[in-house]
Amino acid sequence: PQELPKVAELGTTSAPLKSAAFFIGSHCKEYNEDFMLCKAENRDPGHCLKEGRRVTRCATELITKMRENCLAQFEAHWGCLEQNNQQYYRCRAEERPLNSCVFEKLGLTKVIPGTPQGQKQINEIGSPVLARQQK
Amino acid sequence: MPIPWEALIPSGLMITMFGVTGFLANLSFRAQNQGKPPRYHLERWDEIMIARDYRLTGHNRGQTSDPVIPSATDSK
């Protein structure tokens, strides 16, 4: 409809999105939570358009920033995910430089919400149980 | 003592045949998936994302990291 503001949809496909997922989660937390709470009230597709536009804009902004600052590591990581059935545990070697680049340039860390207190996050363990043959 | 090379011909044949089958199967899977290994253990989420990839790039395994869709600029 013409009266709604126009927001360009996110053009990223599944692998780069999965690579950037935790960063989108920490950067866009408030907008994502607003949208989810709004949708929890009413699952009608036309209901949460404003919050949805905010989510899209935030994610688009983050992807643009990541591409400007960390393009090589980002592309390497999602290229690796594509070769490996999009499983994170098989791409730790590419994930480490990406995480350090994003931390330096954009200040975002990958926080895994369900980790028990006192345990290192899965992506930081030196010798995980489930791993590739080559680290 | 001379080695019985005639007896090893069937073994060699079997190994070659299995090898060729495996090679061609791998080639065919990779050709269908744009040079990448096929995806497995797909859940509903993965199927939806793959359908979305198809709409964005025209192929189930096509990937792009553009922030916006260049042609369409409609809101939801």
UniProtKB/TrEMBL annotation, chain A:
GO terms, biological process = mitochondrial electron transport, NADH to ubiquinone
The source's superkingdom equals Eukaryota
Compartments, record wording:
Mitochondrion
Q: Which residues cross the membrane?
A: none
The record, for PANTHER family, names:
NADH DEHYDROGENASE [UBIQUINONE] 1 ALPHA SUBCOMPLEX SUBUNIT 8, NADH-UBIQUINONE OXIDOREDUCTASE
Q: What does this protein do, in the record's words? A: Accessory subunit of the mitochondrial membrane respiratory chain NADH dehydrogenase (Complex I), that is believed not to be involved in catalysis. Complex I functions in the transfer of electrons from NADH to the respiratory chain. The immediate electron acceptor for the enzyme is believed to be ubiquinone.
Instruction: Give the record's family classification.
Output: Belongs to the complex I NDUFA8 subunit family.
Please report the name of this protein according to its UniProt entry: NADH-ubiquinone oxidoreductase
TrEMBL record, chain B:
The terms describing its cellular component in GO are: mitochondrial inner membrane
Kindly state which keywords UniProt assigns to this record, in alphabetical order. Electron transport, Membrane, Mitochondrion, Mitochondrion inner membrane, Respiratory chain, Transmembrane, Transmembrane helix, Transport
Could you tell me what this protein does? Accessory subunit of the mitochondrial membrane respiratory chain NADH dehydrogenase (Complex I), that is believed not to be involved in catalysis. Complex I functions in the transfer of electrons from NADH to the respiratory chain. The immediate electron acceptor for the enzyme is believed to be ubiquinone.
Q: Which family does it belong to?
A: Belongs to the complex I NDUFA1 subunit family.
| Primary site of residence | mitochondrion
Q: Where are the transmembrane segments?
A: 12-29
Q: Please state where this protein is localized.
A: Mitochondrion inner membrane
**What name is this protein filed under?**
NADH dehydrogenase [ubiquinone] 1 alpha subcomplex subunit 1
Which source organism? Favolaschia claudopus
| Its membrane topology | Single-pass membrane protein
